[in-house]
Each structure stands twice: as C-alpha cells, then as structure tokens.
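Sharing a chain and its predicted structure for anyone who wants a worked example. Both blocks are below, sequence first, tokens second.
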Amino acid sequence: MHEIDLPTGFMRARQGFSEYVETNYGANPYITDPHDMVDSNLSGIWLPKHFDTIEEVVEEYQRLQDLAKGQQGKDAQDLQARVEADLVRARMFTGEEVDFYEYSEKTVGFIPVLAPIEQIDQLYGRLGDLTFVHKGFRIESDPDRFREEYRLTDSKQINRRLGTGIHLSRMALGRRLDHLPEPVEFALQCLPDAPFSAHLETTKHGRFTAGFNTSPARGWTAARTLLTAFHENGGHAIHAGLTQEEIDKGNINLALGLTNMTSPETAYAEVIASAAELLAVEATGTEEARLALEIQLVLEELKNAVFNNANIRINLGHPEKEVVDEAAQYLPLMDRETVRSDILSGLHHPIPRANTSTYYAARELIRPLMAIKDQDVLNGSLNILYRGFFSRGETEAIITRALEDCASSANS
C-alpha cells in the first residue's frame, strides 16, 4: 500500500478531524465553530480524511506521530508539533483527563507561568493613576464613570473608528515591512447578540472572512477600536497574508497553512498581534489620544495577566471561590459572575484552556523587541517574524539577536 507522506497525512487528518467535530458537535452561527480543528486554510487545498469515530482520529494521529519521528528540518519539526497538538486535543474528545501543563505544552507550545503579583499590582495602580491624570478620577473607585466617559454608544461611530483604525494599521505596518500582502476586507456589522468583537479566519478553501462587531454592547472605546484594528488587521491579517505568500512561493510547506485555535501557530500569531498593538501609538495624533490608548493598553495587559493566573490556578485545582475572588478584585469593569464564567470556561472548554495564557505570554515575549530604539534593527526583525510561524525558542532567538545587534551598535 502506498505510504502517504507526513505533510499530506497531516493535512488530511486535520481537515478530517475538523469535519468530524463539526458534524458531531454543531457550529456557531457567527464565527468558526469553536471546536473546529481548522481556523484558517492558507494552502487552499481541502482533502479531508473521513473519520467515523474519535478513536479513529486518535489512531491516525498516533500513526502520524510515528511517521514524524526522526524527520529533520524546520518544516518537519513544525508539523510534528502540530501532530502532537491535535493528538492531545483528540485524546480530550475521548473523555481522557489531560494534565494542564502537558495540555498547554503540547497545544500552544509552552508551559504557562504565573504573572508576578507585583506586576499585577503595578498595572492596577498604573491604570488608576492614568485615569486620574486623564479624567480626574480613579477607575477602581468609579467604574461607572469610566463607562460613561470612555465607552462609545453609537454603532455608526464605532464603525467609522474601526474603519479608520484598519487604514491606520496598514499604513503603520507599511512603514515597517518591506512588502504588504493584499488587504483583507473586514465586514463592519452591528450584531448585539453575537459573542465576539472581531474575527478572522478563512473558508475551507482559503478565502478570508473577517469582521468587527460594531455593537455598543461589546464595550468599545475610541482607544479600543484603534487597538483592536491594529491587533486584527495590522497583526493577524497582514501576518496571514504574508505567510500565505511564502507558502505560494514554496518557502513554507503547504501543510503548515492549516491553522487552528489549539496549536502552536496560534500562540505565535498572538505574538505578532501583540507587536502590532504596540505600534498603535504611532497612529495617535494628540497627547489626549496617546494617553487614552495607554489606558486601554494597561487595561488589556492587566486583564490578560489576571486571567492568565486564574486559568493556571483553576486548572491546578485551586478552590473556585478563591480564584474568582482574587481575579475579580483587579477587574473593575467586569461583574463577578462574568469573571467567574470566563474563568470556568478555561476549565471546561479546550480552546480557552489552551489560549487564555497566550495573550499574557505573547506580550511578555515581544515587549523587549518593541522597546528597541534602533528602528532598522526592529524593522529587520519584524520582517522576519511576519513571514511564517516560529516556535517560542526560535522567536526568542530572533529577539536575542536583535538585542545583541543593538548592543554591538551602541558599543561601536
């Protein structure tokens, strides 16, 4: 019998796993099925293997795991990591209890670490200081006033600001990168009942579909529209487009164009999106706008650090009340029940269980690079990072080289 190679076998397995899950677990009407094993298909090829049972899925990935052993090269290593990620996810579908740290390492490619409480306290204090300087009150003392002062209530205004943010993010990245891919068109729709603010994925056959939910119910502020546009368009969309170009040129294996939400490539994509967020300050034309953006950045960093710690602790068996109480005290804009629900989703749902810690980890990883003063070194690193997918170790090596280059230039 003809032996299928690892890339082809992986593509057929991930696509077949996706169809099996969609068939057996249903779909979400607004975004890609949250259980779906294919989030984006940058290769454009769809040749799924048929599975009748989850046990067949596990067996196929175990076969691919054996096939991957001993294969050399970056593409082979990346494929092996994705096979491992899908296999541990398939094991969970069988009802197997998978250790949290094993699950995290095998899916997103790293073991989460707790954010120091000193860092969280510092962010919390900084947030209060910034709102006091900006508007004359501290957010923790008067969260209702924050909502009144900052939140946008007109969907049309949100629509306009997001459209401007999309344009500004592309301009900002165009000044940094040697080349930009074709733009992704984002639909701007007011969907009050939809459970998302933004989404970006492809159809099965590779057509991009993306959008922002302009409903005021999503808690938009002027600064958040800009930050989210940079995250989604300046980060995810441009990264996906450039990666797709590298696949089309044959520089990246076709099979690596299949991405999903519980696999190392998603954690890496958040590193890129985090870098793009930190470039948003370039789009602020006034001190007022810059200060409002800094408030939003600190607010997001605080939330990510708090939920990172809560996700780790709830999965390690800490008492629910203790975990929720500790998180809620740092999240003045969220009611306790929402905090509780979000934390428990990381205990029961495979996607937040894997991804909750990636946002905190991504910012911590990319922050030293984005602080580099030498713009030529920074831009050179971004041009590398935006073209493909890198492991955590590879990303750290690229950043380390950039920091060493800066140090050498300073000493010469």
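Comments welcome. Residues 48 and 150 are 47 Å apart (CA to CA).
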